[in-house]
Each structure stands twice: as C-alpha cells, then as structure tokens.
Amino acid sequence: MPKQIRLGILTPSSNTALEPLTYQIVSSIPNVSVHFSRFPVTAISLSPEGLAQFDHSVIAQAAQLLAHAEVDMIGWSGTAAGWIGFEDDEKLCQAITKATGIPATTSVLALNKALGIFKVKKLGLVTPYLDDVQERIVKNYNAIGMGVTSETERHLRVVKNTDVALIGEDVLKTLVGQVVDGGADAVSTFCTNLIAAHKVELWEAKYGVPVLDTVTTVTWDMLRQCGVDTKAIKGWGRIFQET
Questions:
Q1: Which InterPro entries does the record match to this protein (predicted)?
Q2: CB neighbour list of residue 128: distance below 8 Å, 6 or more residues apart
Q3: What does the alpha-carbon distance between residue 188 and residue 176 come to, in Å, rounded to a whole number?
Q4: What is the pLDDT of residue 1?
C-alpha cells in the first residue's frame, strides 16, 4: 500500500474557487488527500488594510491548525507575493516551518520554479487585480527576467475577492489569447480565486504555450516534494506531464 499523503492548503477566507479545484486535481491519486485552513482575506489592494491581511503571524496560526492534522506539506494557495515581493513568500515558508515543523511552499514560489523549468522568457500575466497591484506584479516579474510588457498582461480591476470567482471562462479565454498574441511564451492565470485551472489543457492545446494556473502550481509543487509522480494527473495541463 502506498503511503497516505496529506496536503495542507492555506486558503483566503473569501476564496470559493481553490478548494473544489484542488480536490479535482488530486482526485486521481488515491493515496493523496487535501485539507484546508482559512485566514481573513476579503479584498485585494495596496492599502495598509489590504496588505495587513497577509501578516505572517496570522497565516502561521492557520498553518498550526493544519499541523494538528499531521499533514506532510503545507502550501499557501495565494498570490500576494506577486505584489508584496517574492522574498515575502520565502520568509513566510520559513515562518510556517518554524511554527509547525512542516515544509512549506506557495503558489508563487511554485510558479517561479515552473517558469524556470519551461525556460520562459516572455510571461503572459492574466489577473483580476487593480492597476497598481498589477504594476507591482509586472515589476517583480520583470526583475527576474520574465519580459512582461503591456502586450503580455491583462487585468480586470476587481477589488472584492468574492467577485473574482464570478469572472467567466469566456473572459479568461479571451485574455489568455490576447497575451499569447502579444508574444507570451507562457501564461499564468494569476489568482487562486479564478476558476481557470480546469481549462488549462484546452487553452494549451488552442494557443500552443504552457498555461500555469496558481491553484495548480502550489498543488504540483507539494506533490513533487512529497515524492508523488505527477504524470498520473491527466487533463490538468503540461506542468504535470513535462516537469
């Protein structure tokens, strides 16, 4: 019998997308289960209140609840490091492991690993965020050589997190197509409250580039670090088959 593996996922309190999608992604692997812990996040902005939602001490408390379930790995399924800075997620993972003794990763750190594996030079960013939030994300990705331009980014200026999950598939498909047409050699649907992960394989077939959804990336990285062969996961994109 293969070892039972428990994945612990940290979830923004207002997120309604990532839990069902994550369950579906791992459903074909019988010895893997996923468990969730929430902390308060309701709106995305660069205001002091918006940034304070991602205080490490609050997130670590939620992680400690996952530790009660003796999970094998903890993943922050969220993208705040995109605008706060990638080093913030590195410090967060250290704080989680210090508080729980359990290794940790995040959607953004996992995405950045995947970008390296796929040798991405021109990243397409599709997000629901405000102009100033998007500008920060673009700046941070350009700083690591991802070549994001006005032609390869699209954002929808949504603040309230529950509204993000209402963005339709047709809208997302159009935006993915636009950034590919703009020259992107890979695309990230960058927000874990976008209902996008289940469409990745279709978009990859249509547009011919990897599509890296942030619900998917953290799940992929956790499985890899737990020694799971991700090729068993079919229908959720090239990341599981080619990495």
A1: Iso_Racemase_Enz_sf, MaiA/AMDase
A2: 44, 155, 156, 157, 158, 163, 164, 167, 191, 193, 194
A3: 9
A4: 73
Question: What is the number of structural domains in the chain?
Answer: 2
Q: Give, for 124, the enclosing helix (H) or strand (E).
A: strand 123-127
Residue environment code for 23-43, b if the CB has 16+ CB neighbours within 10 A, otherwise e: eebbeebeebebebbebebeb
Q: Number of C-alpha atoms within 13 angstroms, CB side, residue 136? A: 16
CA-to-CA distance for 120 and 110, rounded, in angstroms? Answer: 14
The enclosing domain of 152 has a CATH number of: 3.40.50.12500
Instruction: Encode pLDDT of 176-225 as tens digits.
Output: 999 999 999 999 999 999 999 999 999 999 999 999 999 999 999 999 99
Tell the burial category of 171 from Cβ atoms under 10 Å away from its Cβ (0-12, 13-18, 19+).
middle
60 three-state secondary structure = helix
Q: Which domain holds residue 181?
A: 110-213
Answer yes or no: do 45 and 138 share one domain: no
User: 200 and 158 share a domain?
Assistant: yes
Are residues 97 and 36 located together in one domain of the fold?
yes
End-to-end CA distance of the chain: 25
Separation between Cα atoms, residue 173 and residue 240, nearest integer Å: 21
Tell me, yes or no, whether 72 and 135 share the same domain: no
With beta carbons less than 8 A apart as the criterion, state whether 39 and 161 touch. no
Does residue 187 share a domain with residue 133?
A: yes
Do 203 and 220 lie in one domain? The reply is no
Task: Using 70 as the pLDDT threshold, list the residues of the chain that sit under it.
Answer: none
